[in-house]
Amino acid sequence: MKRLSNLWRKDGVRATPPEAMSISKLEHAVDLLPAKARGLREVETLRNAAGKKIRPEERAFLLDHYQKEATRYSPKARRLLAELAGTHAQPAKASHAPHFSLESRHFTKIAEQSALTFVAALKGFLAVDDETGALHFIPRKTVGKGGQVPSVAIEIPGVKLDDLEGVTFDSDLSRVLVVTEGGRNVFAIPVTLEGGEVVPGTAKKLGKLEKLGTDENRGYEGLAYLPAALSPDGRAHLLAVHEGSPKRLGLFDPKTLEPRGFLALPAPLKTALKDLSDVEVDPKTGLIALLSDQSNRIGFVSLSHEKSKSSKLYQVKGGGKHGGYSIQPLGTLDLPELDKQRAKKGATRLQPEGVAFDASGDLWVSAEGDRSLMHFLRGA
After folding, report:
1. For 212-230, what is each residue's pLDDT tens digit?
2. Is the model's pTM score more than 0.85?
3. Contact 292, 275 (CB under 8 A)
4. CB of 125 within 8 A of CB of 364?
5. Angle between helices 56-69 and 40-50 (to 10 degrees)
6. Would you list the domain boundaries of the chain?
7. Crossing angle, helix 75-84 and helix 56-69, to 10 degrees?
8. Residues 169/175, Cβ–Cβ less than 8 Å
9. Run of H or E residues at 147
10. Minimal CA–CA distance to 130: which of 163, 152, 160, 156?
11. Domain 100-378 belongs in CATH node 1.10.10
């Protein structure tokens, strides 16, 4: 305990302890932070408020702040904030799926939109047309309250792509990743946004995903990138869903495509999701959305990891392999029915094939049956 005399200046005025002053600066800095969408600049503000040498009480304050508000920071900012607080970045834990409500329904002219992802760096969506093998860019600002949505086809230099069934964005290397269903080939495409237009670089083949089953028409259908900041083991993963026979969520090294796990769906999702048509990662919590075309439904799961079983793939009772990974069901979301007035000729069901989260955490679903693009507002 400090002696009373240490708290008084020679002129008799009570002095403020140095540690109290530093905490006050941090509190003031936190009060000035934006409510959400915090990035590297905001972490630098906290670093400056703490000073060059962070005191134990300041680190404790930062740790408490990190534990309470980590989800308000971008993944990269979250990692730096964790270092500042003297801990390791951990994904925000989700105990249940957020509530989503249909806000609006839009329609594209993409013939066979088979996958969807949102790219914050491009300020819009990328959709795959598996009929033509083309990527389409949908600027977020063009998506209003409903009606027709324009899209721009992107020509990929270096390779002819067809039978595309999955697309995602590797935010760490600023590249688009796509997968073909029958061939299981994964291609990486560097992209930039210039004057509002998406400019792709030359596509490079990364390799093939490991073969599962013998039915090439029920192969890999969707991709998602799980950044290290949202991963339970602190490593980035490329996620891929295998449609059926077997129905699996695969985890791969995003650079080498080395498999890290093939996870069977837990009950009750095993019956709730008849097949798997796409996958996406919630940027707010790290939970995983699994889309089912045949069930017209989304299942939400959380991914966990047991460190003692990280060295190899283990056979799981009931099917599947994992390297210490497991998924826990959090809930489901039933999707609307087919818009019969907008339905393609011969379409009898919605056939949802793409799912994405935008930067604010809202949910988007694209469907082949009526070429719809649905916007679901995020609730609690």
Report:
1. 887 777 789 999 999 888 8
2. no
3. yes
4. yes
5. 160
6. 15-84, 100-378
7. 150
8. yes
9. strand 147-148
10. 163
11. no
